[in-house]
């Protein structure tokens, strides 16, 4: 075994586990010791293997990207309690509360209070330090209740300061920038809140930018965790 690579060892371990044709296979962070490229290859292999064999996989992981890549259903737990069980896309777009929103993917959570609800609670208005923000919301919220506005990096757009005097624009100051290969991850501060967003062009700390939030694509959820 010591002559096998990490990826080969994991393939052998999975093969030994499925040879008995189990109805359920528990995988407890099987790829955590592998490098990123090998993990990506084995994620594809495991997904394909599960589909071909029809065996239910229970996959334990602390890596959200890995959970998204492999899962049909994800269970998020906090302190031993299930807080949400959904498909990956729903978990990301409609988190049940602030804990799930913060745990799944990257997000800026903007705290506020509910000031208005549409019929059926399909959309709500949240008063925040950035002003009133509107987005679809989780069911069961009421006016006056604390809540959080869930903002993902891809829901923020940089617009021109000089040509975009728009009431929904937010003026912010760049604080941090990280090169990610095909894009930059930028953090800019507005009203004491750090807003994370993606950009193609490099910016410098201290630069002033105008940001526009795609509010209809965002989500308002419960503040409790």
Give a description of the structure.
By secondary structure, the chain is an alpha+beta fold. It folds into 2 domains: 67 residues, P-loop containing nucleotide triphosphate hydrolases (Rossmann fold), CATH 3.40.50; 130 residues, OB fold (Dihydrolipoamide Acetyltransferase, E2P), CATH 2.40.50.140. The chain has 5 helices and 14 strands. It has a 5-stranded antiparallel β-sheet. The longest helix is centred in the N-terminal third of the chain and has 18 residues. The protein is flat, with a radius of gyration of 21 Å. The mean pLDDT is 88.
* The CATH superfamily title of the largest domain: Nucleic acid-binding proteins
Supply the number of structural domains: 2
Per the CATH scheme, the topology name of the largest domain is OB fold (Dihydrolipoamide Acetyltransferase, E2P)
- CATH class categorisation of the largest domain: Mainly Beta
Q: How are helices and strands ordered from N to C?
A: HEHEHEEHHEEEEEEEEEE
User: How much helix, percentage-wise, in residues?
Assistant: 10-25%
The parts where pLDDT drops under 50 for at least 5 residues are: none
Structural class: alpha+beta
Shape: flat
The CATH architecture of the largest domain: Beta Barrel
Largest sheet: 5 strands, antiparallel
